[in-house]
Every structure is written in structure tokens, then in C-alpha cells.
Amino acid sequence: MECQDRTELAQLQLERLxxxxxxxxxxxxxxxxCLGAACVEPSAVRSLDDLDRLPLTSREDxxxxxxxxxxxxxxxxxxxxxxxxxxxxNPTVSGYTKKDLGIWKEMVARSLTAAGVGxxxxxxxxxxxGLANWARDFKGGAEAIxxxxxxxxxxxxxxxxxxxxxxxxxxxxxxxxxxxQLVREMTRMSVNPNSLSLRRALLLGEPMxxxxxxxxxxxxxxxxxTGYGLSEVPGPGIAYxxxxxxxxxxxxxxxxxxVVDPETGAQLPPDEVGxxxxxxxxxxxxxxxxxxxGDRATLTTDICSCGRSFARMEPVKGRADQLVVIRGIxxxxxxxxxxxxxxxxGSLSAYVGFxxxxxxxxxxxIWVRVDESHxxxxxxxxxxxxxxxxxxxEQSLGIPAKVRLVEPSTMALYEDRLGQILxxxxxx
Amino acid sequence: xxxxxxxxxFYGRIRVxxxxxxSVKPGEVVTxxxxxxxxxxxxxxxxxxxxxxxxxxxxxxxTRLNGxxxxxxxxLGICQVPEGRQIFQPxxxxxxxxxxxxxxxxxxxxxxxxxxxxxxxxxxxxxxxRLRQISGTLSGGEQQMLAIGRALMSRPKLLxxxxxxxxxxxxxxxxIFRTIVQLRDEGLTILIVEQNARAALKVADRGYVMETxxxxxxxxxxxxxxxxxxxxxYLGRDYREFTEGRS
Lengths: 428, 247
Prior knowledge:
The structure holds 2 protein chains of 2 kinds. Chain A is an alpha/beta fold. Chain A has helices at residues 6-27, 29-37, 59-64, 98-114, 132-144, 157-166, 176-188, 210-220, 333-344, 379-397, 408-411, and strands at 78-84, 92-97, 122-125, 148-150, 171-174, 200-203, 223-230, 235-241, 248-250, 255-260, 274-280, 291-297, 299-300, 312-313, 324-326, 329-331, 351-358, 361-369, 401-406, 421-423. Chain A folds into 2 domains: 1-320, Rossmann fold (3-Layer(aba) Sandwich); 332-423, GMP Synthetase, Chain A, domain 3, CATH 3.30.300.30. Helix content of chain A is 32%, strand content 24%. A 9-stranded mixed β-sheet of chain A has the order 4-3-5-6-7-8-9-14-13, sandwiched between helices. A 4-stranded mixed β-sheet of chain A has the order 19-18-17-20. A 3-stranded antiparallel β-sheet of chain A has the order 10-11-12. In chain A, helix 1 (6-27) packs across helix 2 (29-37), helix 7 (176-188) runs parallel beside helix 8 and helix 9 runs antiparallel to helix 10. By secondary structure, chain B is an alpha/beta fold. Chain B is 43% helix and 26% strand. Chain B contains 11 helices and 10 strands. A 6-stranded mixed β-sheet of chain B has the order 6-7-8-3-9-10, sandwiched between helices. In chain B, helix 3 runs parallel beside helix 7. The longest helix of chain B has 19 residues, at 228-246. Chain B is globular, with a radius of gyration of 18 Å. Chain B starts with a strand and ends with a helix. At the A-B interface, helix 1 of A face strand 1, strand 2 and strand 10 of B.
């Protein structure tokens, strides 16, 4: 399938696109209305080039249809329900039929195989709880190719290093930032990389610069591959890197990728940078029609020297929208706003979020201005506020967060950036 | 082998096929399932060029079939076994089979015609026994065998079967589908249109599900047999018929 002739692939994509549209139009009122509003009938799509006549779908649309509004099959056919952080107060919920899960498993298996993973490998999966869905998918995909899997567990970093060393892990699956933490911890524990059985790592979930990749490869004496996935559909396997490392192959038998101008939404030609837009071709429970990923990407369709004919995208370099990616979790300013207004009943309106890198650990820190209404003689009250806020943030995001109360005078420095999230990490 | 893109067909003002795209690869058995009136037979008739299509393209082995007459399609190697058999009832079994080889008749190619007839008899021994019988007097199952045999006489590369199980007793249906498996194993490419979804999916490699002129689902036969929509809409009915038949 991965090396299929491109005209055959185009026929397959067209057939699957048309039936996906027919199902979405019939079973999902949201898509039916969207198509109606754009005056497009599903039958107007006569070739893959007609795709740009269809309306785009955004993350907001996913949140608005919380929880089950975008499901295209009855709930009794759903075998897994999955939640991702949304853009507003509602998370996004997606569902999967048994067959959908099988397809995801196959896509993850493909990306592992392309990275050279086989039945003889021992795979260790380390993600933050916020990416638990990806961890689950990697477990499924790795088991499908009969590798030995050490599933995600909430162990501390030193314990993970111990497992990696003692269990003779050959393949590590994690985010670039987690890999950096592991390297730092290894140095602290004086674990020599040569004493590990590690041969490769699959790092994904956040942008990774070539320099970071090279430095990690040198530090661990391994090959590093990357991949691409969305948190809305629990798939780390939408695109994967082969060993030629000439971009990520998109699983085009299951997705059509386009790149659009983030401002106008107009389709861009190959090799131009824009926002990645994905349309699912086989998803039964949760079809996505021209979903704006918010990731900046370029596409190319020349045949890769590995022989796979699937189109490739450059590894994602950044975001085309306001989302901040922290340890693989996508964070929208709106989400923080929602939590603040809920907990503070309007009194916590002045805050700024920071994403910082401290000793290779990416952290979310929220500064909240203490107003007079908060000044209370009881220090306990303030402590309680900080505690609740932190717990709430960690609950919704699945990553650790810090909360600091600051004086109005300090906050004045950020007067024009209240409510924003400032990314203070050095690039990469 | 066969590639169809965006086919639209109208009966008067009623749209029967709505943007249908479908493909069959060499050596594959593909089935098109759907309720009565979904447009399945219309699609086969479009491929055979018995009815015109308003929009879309049909390619067979790279040749465009649009605008060509039916005999051109047969010559290219597509033969349709029509719904309800449609054998030449007043003619004998032998004459019917010879009609299947009509394109080769003028070429004094009798040797090869006899060879092919022997092949048909090895598939359907009962036809050899009934060789001189007027075909209208055959049973339904035998007529269906004759219709398939007649199509095979044209040495098709792609066989189109329209409702081969229609109106036949369950045991005869099983016989017909056994023959389809045999033809598949010999490497013949087959497109079957069926309301008996379960039987068709059991012999097919892949399937398409059609609803009111649109393809709403496709996949491998195994996937479709497991699909809940297909189970509810098509297999469930079969299940009911089956139990009713036994009570």
C-alpha cells in the first residue's frame, strides 16, 4: 500500500473521499449544515482537486459540538471515547468504532516499521498523562508488530532511566522534551549511554529542530525518527518518517493532506509553507472534513528514495495559530481563560502564562495579579487559591503547572499581554 | 482493470446514480451490495453500455467505454450475466451457449468454441445432460448456470453478475456461489451485484455499499461483514429471512 502507484492511489482516495462525504452529509447534522451553507453537494466533489470547494472545519467547531455532535455512527457502535483539550471551556471528544481502532493501530505499526522497529525490539513508552492516548496507540501498534512493549507508567525520570537500562530497552517512544530530561538524568546518575541497549528513539508531539535531534542522537548514540499526529484523533501515526529522513510520509490511504493560507484559507501549491489541513478517508465514527490542524507545514509529492509513494510533509516547525505546544500538549489561551473565570468568579482576570524551559524541563507557569479583593489576612486563603488553581490546570492539561501570585507593580510590566501565554523557550 | 469515476445516471428526472466511483483490480472479486432500488443494476448496465450515463467516466484496461456500443464492450472482454437470467428460452442449451461465443462464430473457430463448451460443462455438468433441451424448460437454478455458462463462452476478462441468487432456492444459491468461488480461484475478475449481502461478501475480496445512488461505504469483504451498519441494514434482513424460512 505504501508504495502504490499514485494514479491508483488517487482513485482509492477519490472513492473513499466520496463515501466519507456521503456518510458525513447523511449522519452528521453539523457537516450537512456546513455543506448546505456553502451550497456544495457531496456530489460536487468529482476529483481530489474539488476538495477546496468544501468548507474548512476548525478546533472551535469540534468544541462547539461537545460531546457527541460530530459522531457519524450510533453510540452503540463506538468502542472508545477520547478527550483532548479543546480551545474553550469544552474539551473535544472523539469516538472510534472497532474498525477505526484497527486502522489507527495499523498506521502506528507502519510508523514503527518505517523506523526499523521489529518483533525483536523492546519498546519503552514515556509520555505525560496528557498524551496518554498516544501512549495507548503506540502500545497497540507495537504489539501488532509483536514487539515487546513497556507501556506508559507514571514513573519518575530516574526510574525510567533505570527501566531503560535494566530492561534493555531498544526503542524509546516519547517527546523531545522528555528525551532531554532523560539525558540530563542519565548524566546526573552517571549512566553511560554505551551501557544501554538503546538503538533508536521515536520522538514526537512537539517541534524538534535538527540541532536538538543531532545533539540527542550524539548524547544517546542512537538514531532518532519523528512523526506527526493530532490530539483530536488519538493518532500519533498520521505521518511518519522513513530512514531516508526526507520528510514525513502521510498515510494517504487514510488521510488527504492540504496546505492552506492560514489567513484566507486558500489552498497553496506544494512546497509552500502554510497551515496543514487534513481530511479523513476511512474514519467511520469521527470523520474530519478539511480540519485545520493549526500546524505549519509544507507538502511534497516527489517519490522518496525509500520507494514509498505517499506524499511527504516537512516536520512541523511551529503553529499557525495561538496554540502553544508544551510537552506535546496543545494549549489554547482560551482554555486558561475558562479555568480562571470559573475559579475566580471574575476576580482573576489579570494573569499571564509563561512556558519556560528549566533544566530541560518545559514548564507552564501562571502569574496571577493579587488584587485588593484577594488580600486577606489569612495566608491560608491565598495558599488555597494557588493550590486549587494549580490542581485545576494540571487536571485539565495533564502536565505539571506552577502558579505564582504577584504584586500589581510587577504585573504592570505585562499590562498589554494579560491573558496571553508567552513562550519563553529558546527555539527548538 | 475497471475504473469508474463520478458516474451519474438519470431515469427521466430521477437521479439513479449520484457521483459513483468504483474500481476493480485484476483477479479481484468485488461486490456491490445495497437495498432494492439503490442503483446497483443500473451501474452494471452503464458499464455494459446498455444505458447511457450523463456524467462520469468508465475505463476498462485503459480504454474509455463512454459512448461505445455494447458489442464493443463485450469485445474488450466484459460480459454481463443479466438479472433474471434472460436466456434465450426457445433455444436449446447448446444454442444458448453458442450464442455466447457469437463474436467468434464467423471466424470458423469451432474448435475453440467446443473447447470452451467443455469447460462450461466441467463447471456445470448438468448442462451437458440437458444439451438438447429447450432452455425455457430448465429449472431456475439450471437457467442461472446456463446464463453464467453463456457469458463464459465469450471468454470474458471481467464477468458482471447481476443478482445471481435472485429467486433461487437456498441450496441452489449455495451451488451458484460455489461456482463463483471456483471461477475466482481460476483467476477470473468478477463484479457481483447482490441483495444477498452475506453470500456475496463471503466470496468477495472487497465490497461497496450503495444507498439511493451513492456509495456510502467500502472496504474489504471481511471488514464489511463486521461493520455494524452493514449488519443492521443488510445482514439483519437475511437473518430474518433465514429464520422465517425455517419456521
